[in-house]
Amino acid sequence: MTTTIFEDWLATPQGQYVLNWEMVKHDMLLADVFGFNAVQIGMLRHDYLRNNRMPFRFRCDSIIEPEPPCEVYTDIHHLPFSAQSVDLILLPHILEFDSNPHQILREVERVLVPEGQVVITGFNPYSLWGMRRHFGAARNAMPWNGRYISVPRLRDWFALLGFETRAGVFGCYAPPLRHEKWLRRWEFIEYAGDRWWPFTGAVYVIQAIKRVQGMRLIMPTWADRRARAKATAAVTQQITQTRMFASTTSEDENA
User: Fold this and answer.
1) Where on the tree of life does the source sit, at the highest rank (predicted)?
2) Which pTM value belongs to this model?
3) For labelling alongside 45, which of 4, 143, 170, 216 has CA 20 to 30 A away?
4) CA atoms within 13 A on the CB side of 187
C-alpha cells in the first residue's frame, strides 16, 4: 500500500521533479551494467530498467495492481529467486518505507551472484527535504513519513553484508516547493549544488557490488549462463501464472 501511495505522490509537481532526475541518473548508470537477470523491486508504474540491456528484466512487488506490468508478486522480504541467480537488483525508495529494511538487504545479498550489483534510491536526511520532514506539519503524509536512511549508514550496512560501494550521486537541491513554477525558478541551484554542496541533495542513487572474500570468480561459459538465466525466467513466469490463477479463482469464488 505504501508504494502505491508513494507512486501517487510522484504524479505531483514535487514527485515529478524527483522522478525525472532519478530516471535520468538510472539511465546513465545502468546502460553499461551487463548480465542476464535484472530485478526491480517496487515502483511498478515506472521502469527504472528501461535503459538496461539485460535480456531478462523483472519487476516485482507484494502489491497486486491491474495496470502496471509486474512479472512477480511476492513477499519482498523473501524473494522467490534462487541463491546467486540475479545480476542486478534495484531498490527505488523501498528501504525507507519498509519496517524491515535489513531483511530486504539480506535477501538481496542472498540472490545476487558474486560481483552482482544493487542500486538503491532514497531521500537524503541531510537536506532541505530532510529538514522539511523533521519540522514540517504534515510528517504523516507521503513522502515525509518515511525513515530516511543516510548514505553513510547505507555504506555501513553494505560493509556488514560484504558489499563494496562503487558509485553514488546526489541531486534535487531545490527546496520542497509544491508548485511547478517555483521549482523551475530554482533550476539554477542544480548546477551550483553539484559543484559546491553535493552532499545536500534531496535524493541519492548509490550503487554497490557484492564481493566474496577469498573466492576466485570463474565465470561459466556464455551458453551455461544463458541457460541458467532462462531457467530463472521460466521459474518466475510459472510463479506469476500460479499467483494470477489463484487471484482469478479467488475473484470467481467471491463473485
Assistant:
1) Bacteria
2) 0.80
3) 170
4) 6
